[in-house]
Amino acid sequence: MIKTITALVLNRFHILIWITLAILAVATSIKTMEWLGGYYSASAFPVSVPKGQLTFNAQTTKGYYQTLLDLGTLDKYLLTQKLDFLLMVTFLVSMFLLGAAATRLINWQFKDSKLTKFSLGIMWITPIAALFDALENMVSFVMLSNPTHFSDWLIWPYSTFAAAKFSLITLGYVWAIIAVILTSLTFILRCLPKQIRAGRNS
User: Fold this and answer.
1) Which of 69, 139, 155, 163 lies 20 to 30 Å from 106 when distance is taken between CA atoms?
2) Residue 189 — pLDDT band, cuts 50, 70, 90?
3) What radius of gyration do the chain's Cα atoms show?
4) Residue 202, class by beta-carbon neighbours within 10 Å (0-12 exposed, 13-18 middle, 19+ buried)?
5) pLDDT category, 202, cuts 50, 70, 90?
6) Does residue 200 sit in helix, strand or coil?
7) Roughly how many angstroms between the first and final C-alpha of the chain, as a whole number?
């Protein structure tokens, strides 16, 4: 299965098709985040999503949940958590297609190189962000079942899964940017006359 998909990414369809698919997938993910952000704002959660998920502190998180209880918006926050599973699907697809497009770009200028293999690794690893997001949500449901008295140790897997999710998403975007810059510069340099590339003075 993995070999088949890898071969598909490296050899099938024009590179522009992979780039277009990646752009559409990322745009869909961003739009989904914006849509979900409306529900998050309606819940009146006191801090941003990253800050709320990366506390690694049970008392701090319980304080956030207490705020929702005081405002009567805990149900809205729970709805946001459930709708988040739609965002996970966009993470899965967009991270894979972004990695696939980056890999095609790299392989275009560095055919069958170690750099291509490295990019393939990123292509397969970054979509796991969706799994970590799902695990984080599952832990949050346990915590929210007893929002101000959940077991303190639950904050560690909760925030760890969130950190892994954010790290993989960041890796996916950063590598895509590096791939574009690296292949563009390499292409330009290879198009220059040999005299210029060699730095020979006339």
Assistant:
1) 163
2) confident
3) 22
4) exposed
5) very low
6) coil
7) 55
Instruction: State the number of CA atoms in the 13 A half-sphere of 128 facing the CB.
Output: 12
Round to whole Å and give the CA distance between 36 and 78: 12
**Torsion, CA 188, CA 194, CA 195, CA 199, rounded to 10:** 60
Find out whether 85 and 181 touch, Cβ atoms under 8 Å.
no
Mean pLDDT value of segment 175-194: 87
Question: Which helix H or strand E contains 173, and what residues bound it?
Answer: helix 155-191
Cα separation, 3 vs 202, in Å, equals: 50
CA 156/CA 151 separation, integer angstroms: 10
Three-state DSSP state, 198: coil
Three-state helix/strand/coil letters over 121-154: HHHHHHHHHHHHHHHHHHHHHHHHCCCCCCCHHH
Rounded Cα distance between 120 and 126, Å, is 10
Supply the pTM of this predicted model. 0.89
Place of tokens 């502190």: 57
Residue 139 backbone phi and psi in degrees, to 5: -65, -40
Listing DSSP states for 81-129 in one string gives HHHHHHHHHHHHHHHHHHHHHHHHHHHHHSTT-HHHHHHHHHHHHGGGH
pLDDT digit string (tens) for 1-39?
Answer: 888 989 889 888 999 999 999 999 999 999 999 999 999
